[in-house]
Amino acid sequence: MHDTIPAPAQADCLTAFGALRADADSDPETTIELGEGCNRFPPSPDLARYLSTLLDRFIRDGTLSAYAGRRPAGTRAAMAELLGIHLNMHLDAADIFFTRGGTEAINLTIAHLADTGHGLVLPLPTYYAFDQSAVRWGAPITAYYRHDGALHPTGTAPAPRTCLVEVLPNGVTGARHNLPKLAGPDFTLVDVPFQFGAEGPQPAAILRDRVRGLDLENAALILTASKDLSLPGLRAAVVVTRNKALLSHLGRDRFERMAMSGDPVGEVVMLFYASLLALTDAPREQTSKLVQIAQDCMHRAGLPDLPDEETYRRVRDHLTVMSERFRRNALVIAGPGSPLRPITGLQPATGYSAFAELRAPQEDFLQWVVRCGRSGLRLNPTVVHGGTTAAWEALYPWGQLLRINLSEDPVLLDRGLALLKRFAIEGPFTDPIPIAHGGERPPRTAEP
What we know:
Layout: H1 12-21, E1 32-33, H2 45-60, H3 75-87, E2 96-99, H4 102-115, E3 118-123, H5 128-137, E4 141-145, E5 151-153, E6 161-167, E7 187-192, H6 203-212, E8 219-224, E9 237-241, H7 244-258, H8 264-281, H9 287-300, H10 309-334, E10 340-342, E11 353-358, H11 365-374, E12 377-378, H12 389-395, E13 401-405, H13 410-426
Parallel strand pairs: 1-12, 3-4, 3-6, 6-7, 7-8
Antiparallel strand pairs: 2-9, 4-5, 8-9, 10-11, 11-13
């Protein structure tokens, strides 16, 4: 009999998430979750029809046949052209690599960084995959930084090289965080989880300003369509870099895991997304011109047609309604009757996520979160969003912060906030159970 191999180490945030969810009410009929990491706004029906047509074509022409399918040519060149238009920079086909979602892109990139001796400087809060990938591949996390750039060294021995990770906008707060003052990182990884739902400065301008200063020889940019388009199950993302070692690592992994198979639907969705980003950022009178540019790009590459102009217009209008929901919910959370208060410098500008402080402090915050979960209100507090207890105490000493999903149906959000307010004042009527950041209960597989 083979010896049992111990499971790999797990990031503290995942351990904490599992402990917080243990014994929580999971019945969808009786439970409200205010901070789920998923866009709850319905996807565009026009986009759904386009995807159905695209899938039908790929089935009929053999593209999806096992190993023998004919893959569309020129997807990387088309993405370089369309994304280059949006970012106002020149990109080549060789700078583009498609992955099955942003989480895969994060995992593969950190695996390469670990192999090349890089330590990571991560934002706090952050998406759990950064911490978990670092633990899995052995990339030391040397520091965390908060929204104003304040740095918390972890005490880990310095690595030969440093990678600064930026999430733009931050996937938990929805805000652009100031970068810490570092003596020239050796590599920079910029993750872009979403671009729609803006308040204030346009996200496209912020992104263009950021990439203008990036040397893609020593940097990588990750973009995904999944969150903005409300299609988390359609794993679609792209890595943009000129770092040949990283590109080689990505290519070897693709060959080893998937051989001749690809993801033609996800690639075309990313092409549509890139063209949609350019269109939504431009004046409406330029819509016809930009749609034609995108269609011509696809034709030159021998790829399927993108949607027609009227479909683009309807998808854009759909995203406008989505953004209005985000704004409405953000105003409710910040309102005088809310149990939460916004944090200066952390007001959400883009995307569906906000991070706010509980107005009525609890004597034992995490114990209270557990009792809320057992009473039907599942919450996502600080410790499930990366980092360690020491990092959270150093960077956010007030500490009683919760992630709130701005994409939730307004009726459900209002009910959830009312329940949150009641529990904050009266307390949930359940008995406490032992919990600590770094406990031993396994996490759920769902995203925190």
